[in-house]
Queue: 4 jobs
Job 1
Amino acid sequence: MTGNLAMVKSEAPRRGSIAPLKNVMTLMMLIETLKDRGVGLPGIGVFSGDSGYGKSVAAQYAMNKTGAVYIEVRHYWRQKRFCEALLEELGQPRPRGTVAAMMDEIIHRMGDAPNRPLIIDEADKLVDGKMIEFVRDIHETTQAPVVLIGEELLPKKLEAHERVHNRVLDFRLAQPCDLEDTVTLAGFLVPEVAIAEELLNDIRKQTAGKARRIATTLHEIGQFARNHGLKDLDRTSYTGRIFTGETPIRRRGGRI
């Protein structure tokens, strides 16, 4: 077979581990910046970018590495549910009480470990639900590092909340996967298949560099290779799907 093959490991990664992509490292550097900030500097960081760039996966990695408190905000949450969820992550089972009482307990518990980061995923929903000031109160009182993770427009949304925006020390943008990230994912997710670099670059381009779509395509490649008894693939030999995010259209004759 011709073509430049991406080098992959022969052994599969440990189950549950996370590929060390550039966005993972960007988030880790942001957390270290917040933890090591000088006296008097604000300690809120923002990590934002398009859906599918792997921000939530990076957050899971950071939580495991730093021992951070991590919550993912849901669309239907209101003030009380936000407080309950955060208290549950802080180790209080079945939290009860008023919003004010629960906020006092959150501040007390986080104040006991002021260098422990708080990572809030889907933080856009806190802004939309008029709960973002809760984050400022927690940070101001405990001085704990706080990372807000959200979509591309999160920094712009925060501008409407000046008291929160003024306390952001650093903004970092999640980036689409480049070829190096794509090669890393291939070696991580399908280490048993040698994939030509040209094919990996095609996948990166057609998926717009979105880690989730690349990972789904690589899973498809693994299935394709097993079904056809192949150990290496290039643009010619791979005839399976690439998950671009486009909606399938039924063609004439009933075929998709």
Job 2
Amino acid sequence: MKNKIIYWGITLCLILGFTACGENDNWVVVDDVQPGVYVSGSAVVYKSIAPAASFKAGYPDPDTDEREGVSTIFTWLKASGDLFITKADATGNIINYGKGAEVSSVTSELVAEGPAYKVTEDGLYFLIYNSNLSQLTIVPAKFGVIGAATPQGWNAESPFTSVNYNESTATVEFKGTFPFTKDQMKFRFNGDWGITIPYDASSTIKFHTNMGSIGDSDGAVALASSSTELKGGGKNLSVPLGAAYDVTLKLDLRTNKFSVSAVQGEIIKPTYPEELYMTGNEFGNWFSDPAGVVKMVPVNGASGSFWCVRYFTANQGFKWAPQPSWDGGDFSELASKEGYSIKDGNAVVDADGLYMVYIDMVADKIVIEPAKVYGIGNAFGGWDAATYPFTISGNKMTITTTAAGDLRIYAGSSAATTDWWTREFNIFNGKIEYRGAGGDQAAVPVAAGKKVTLDFNAGTGTIE
């Protein structure tokens, strides 16, 4: 039998000769409902069973192989109406399905001619139809921004302040103003990176709950004032400049495709952490052993700059965070990096050795290089920088004083832009103590011929 289907477009209306379509009409009547599964009822915004109302394959997690028999749709639903799932087969038979037994808080069985589904509030919803088990999953799609560039980092979404359905354009728009830093971000809903539902009697399937760019790599596509196409599980978007952005996330209900545009507002002066920590396989076992976590030393007078000297083993991962825990903001690289590589998302060096790590957040770079530590001052015969180097032996460094005087020691770095004393340290009671952001350290007088030994990993030093 033949049925009526509603199809989008005033232009198509004119092509087909439906001159009765008014200026504000968005839907055109054509013959024959195509085989498929559709959302229907008074809760939906479509006037009848329409191509735009059909479930389509999409947004499965790439780690999931199973795809056959499941399909999805993002759609606007009204709390005042009834929602049904309509199936049309190739012979023209149409059956409405309602809500059956609940499988979980978001998933239920479908029952032919069953009671209507209801939602508690108007809004955008993500629906998953699983023909293998004849089940429907309904999840509110309350999008927010997430990522290192956003107010809550990768910990949680920062929600949009408004969401509206525009009937004249058949679009859903999320809007909000966010203070972004120069970093990366994307869009997410449901407070997690996926929705896992039963796939068949013995396995599950996972679906994306995030939207990213269609670029080839994270950060390759920048947030812009022009419309940028998005896809489920896409790559991170880069934020080109720290500023307040008016962001519009848009869903076209005709195509079920997302896009984003962002208008840059007032530039925000970047802020940098007062502390920075390094952890990894050899440094606190990824924060599980607090005593082994390295507290980076702030460069005196240089906001956002930190350093440390440590012995590293090749190919043992490490990274940094602004606190000694997994509470967001961790990173393994900045815009520029030298002297190391990334493996499985972590920083690694390619050879065992003592290294100087210098992080300059203002310049957006990290430099790791073989450590160079120097003595300076009267105990070594002069005040010329980079003239009296320590000798490296395994994981330790040594130097012998040549005259009586106060012991002064500092770490060198090719990335440093400040005087030597901004990276100064000394030995007190057998321990290495760093000047950091503080004032002059207490004097450490030594005689000529004293051997000074440093063990940075142990945090100890001797003067013999």
Job 3
Amino acid sequence: MNASDIILVTSHNNKSYQTNTLSHKASIDYQYIVAIAYVFIQTTICSIGFILNIINFSVFICKKFSASAYILMTVLSLADAITLGVRIPQGCIFLPHLNHHATDAAIYIYMYSIYVETPVSNMTENISAWLTVALAIERYVSMKHWSLSKRYFTRKTTRQLIASICIIAFIFNIPYFAIQRVSLKYVDGVLQLHSDLTSFSRSTYYAFYSWLRIVFVQIIPLCFLCVSNCLLFILVSHHNRRFTNNKMNNNTNSKENKLSGNTFGISKTHKQRIQVDDTSQDSCTDAINNFGEQKLITESNLQSIQENELTIPEKMVDRDEVQSTSRKNTHDNNDNDNNNNSSIKTKKPILQDRSKQRRQNAQRKLTILLIAVILLFLIGQVPQSLAYVRVFTTLGVCSIDQIQTCVTYHLYRMITINLAQFAFASTFFLYLFLNRDFRETLRFICCRLCQKCKISETNQRLLRETNYLNEPPSNFPK
């Protein structure tokens, strides 16, 4: 069989026609553009995105990321990796449009796309959409009602939620396995693939199912994510304003405490100086009085007795002043001790406030990360939701009979599919730039792998050296 004679034949609505004639004829310009986009751009995005999401998954399975939000992100990374991984071979279907040389691989990849890629990618896309909705709910409850999130969003309930989402997504996408019927035949030495729609895909049940899927997978999740993203943005902005206000209040309070401490120290030293001056003044007056007493005793005993009687109450007054000042000093010391005890007692509430602020800051940063993830998901999924055949034909751009040859539909579908896959692949950079724990864990994993590589290289070098030493010389007989 000549590979250049392979023809891919499909039949839809009981009308058999050739969709791809793998010959050396010149194709239309838009077919070249679509083929280049699927072969090179889509394959590159899917390959790189698959590797990056595997890195995300390997980082999030570490023990540091044990919170419920990180568990959801772990499964989300795995679902995105599967979505991109199963779409890597899809671009090879369009290779004959570029090299005008057909192979059997294009036909078998087309069968793989019908029976494996379409159902599995739809399942994982559903899982990604519903997990993103669950993340938005968890973040909103954590920011608004911390006690409720701590009670209901535990690890066990999160795992149960993930299992239920996966089961529902699998059941919900089972009809994709029964949409098309594919058969391979050799006609005059030419391999032909006949693809026909099943009776189920032509029934009203499938039409109802397709609209139901659009509602539950596209419309409701995307609308909910738009609203929840706005609410989360409002909560984060409100928290930022409150955080800045608290920081300004703490700075002003610390300045006031410093000023009050300085004034208290100045007043204390001033009191001590006054007390020293009072005691020195009392000693001076005592010396003067003693000198006056001695002088007056020599003159007359009567006058000395009278003056002594007059000076006794003055001394008593001075003693009372000294005692009162000493009592004041002891009272001030007791006040200082009470202030120290009260400061020790207030250390625990201050530490609790600091831990609360740290927790709130961590929740705020995680919510900012989730807002970016939701925004990226919406950028990729909202345009793609309009690329479904029933939605696109409902908008009136192309009719159902002309959808296979509609240039606008094929170009729009190619752009939106690549945009959605780029969104799935770009979450790695959001985690890398917006999460410090992710960066530290990734750095630790890379360093550990580098150390293992160095150890293996040294072991191989030592093994080569030992083998070289064990070999006999070439000039001696073995």
Job 4
Amino acid sequence: MLDGVVGGQGYVFARDESQAKIIFNKMKAMISMAPNMGDTQIYKKSIYLPKIRALFELLTGKPEGKHGKSPTVIAGDEMHEWETPDLANFLRQGTGTRLEPIELYASTAGIKSNKTGYALWEESLSILEGRIDDPSTLVVIFALDPDDDWADEANWPKANPSLGISPTMQFLRREAAIAADNPRAEQHFRCYHLNQWIDAVTRWLSLKKWDACATDTEAWKGWRDGRGLEGRKCYAAIDVSSNQDITARLLAFPPDDKIKRWILSARFWVPEDTIARRSRQDRVSYDKWLGIEALEQTPGDYVDQDYVRKALAEDLERYDVASIGYDPWNATKLVTDMQKDGVQEGMFVTMRQGIPTLGEPTKLFERLVISGHLDHGGHPILRWMAGNVAVRFDENLNYAPTKKKSAEKIDGIVAAVMGVGLSMMEEEPSRPALEFL
């Protein structure tokens, strides 16, 4: 116990004490059955090993009064119900005095509106999928994938590795039958038996499907410079950031006689002075992306829109740009400057980032990804953003990307949705959601 560390400290906690007792009582039962731990002193809320003066304690879920501990082992249960991450953070700070501390956390899925639990889930996925580089953390997930059929029994073992023993197949079949015609019960079944997080806002794109859309994962480098795309028709879209965020320019090339899939060509800019801070804050490799020219920097601490302006001017010379979509929130000055440069006013299309404008383009983009009729060339920033993006639903179950609810930046995906959406405007020129200036 506690790896034989003299003076070791262990703590178990959950949202409240009664929930944490589930683990703690199992620990006490295991110790009482172990023949070589007869001198262990077991109390109501603690376990003490006299030989090494080591103590394991049951904690309440409240963070108050928990500073000053030096854990060797931390066990936290049912993270999806935690009100805050404070207790885990306080205990983690104390592990700095230990040579080989270990933290163990376990949970079923829960409601996405629980910000603490869902943030830990998103962080775990990011580590597992390589979007966060954290070799010190082992993530193990037993859950159905978002696009799995929850009612298909063949998928159930993915979330239940001991299926047939715990739970029994008979039990799950009975619960699934109840859920078959009851939306509330379906949500409950998917969440607690198949480990699928549920909410009105949901992660959107499967990275497995996204990755399958790249026939050549290095193609983005050539497309960035226009290689093989010169003179082709395309739709341009810009997602202009606030001063210190990522700005995206996306070109969407529709299929033609030679290439049967949509091609996405992306460029991204960030302010030079914010790169180091953002790399630490967002835990992503901005400096690595700069090194492979997937990301470009502008001098100073804000994105200089003249760089985007120059890129779009080059695009207009190099390709057959049908139109340029933009959200006026941050792009009005850029559009005005380009019009002063001689770009026709009718080239620009206002595309506000909401369900009324992006609802149908979002559905089209999703179909292109799922069917494999899209090629992004393996652009690493687009992949990161595809893994971040969430969509929100309206009362009619129309949906569109939401920046507020997404795990991290999604500007490139939003621009891609805008790009394919411009093609729909050509097909239906009277669409009220896409407004010409």
